[in-house]
Amino acid sequence: MLVRPEAPADYAAIAAITEAAFGKAREARMVEAIRASDGFVPELSLVAEDEAEIVGHILLSYVSLEEDSRRLLELGPISVRPDRQRTGIGGALVRAALAIADERGEPLVLVLGHPSYYPTFGFRPASGLGIVPPDGIPDEAWMAITLSAYRPELRGRVVFPPAYSVEA
After folding, report:
1. pLDDT by 10s per residue, the chain, length 168
2. How far is the C-alpha of 41 from the C-alpha of 60, rounded, in Å?
3. Could you tell me whether strands 2-5 and 40-50 are parallel, antiparallel, or unpaired per DSSP bridges?
4. Where are the domains of the chain?
5. Threshold 0.85, pTM exceeds
6. CATH match of 2-162 with 3.40.50.720
C-alpha cells in the first residue's frame, strides 16, 4: 500500500469512499469545500492506494483561534473504503499525515473524533492544552496531539471555517 498526496484524478474516488464510509454525502461535500478554501494544505490531503486503487483518504486543514492570527491543523475527515476498514489503512494515513505535519513545523493537530480511537496515536483531550472547541463539541471527542514545534502558550477557542458548515 502506498500513501501519497491526492491528485485531481483521485477526486471522484475520494468522494465515493468518503460518502460510503460516512453513509451520507455531507462529508464528501465538506472535502470539496475545504479544497476550495484558504485552509487547504495540498500536501496534507493524502490517499492510500493499493494495487492502483484508492482505498482511503485523510485531510488535515487549517482552523483558526478566536482573537488570534494563528491557525492550527485539524484532522478530518478521514475515510476508508468500508470493505477495507479495520485493516490498518486508517492508521497508516494518520501516521503519515502526522509525520508530514511535524516536518512542516506545525505545533499540533486537532481532531474531533472517537475518544477510543485517536488516543492510540497519542491524541489527548485538547482542553488540557488550553485549546477549547467551538460550542456544542463534547470535550471527550475534542483531542490534540502535540508535535515538535508545540509551545504551551498556544491556547484559545477554535473557530471552524465556513467549509465545515456544508449542508447534508
Report:
1. 999 999 999 999 999 999 999 999 999 999 999 999 999 999 999 999 999 999 999 999 999 999 888 899 999 999 999 999 999 999 999 999 999 999 999 999 999 999 999 999 999 999 999 999 998 999 999 999 999 999 999 999 999 999 999 875
2. 7
3. antiparallel
4. 2-162
5. yes
6. no
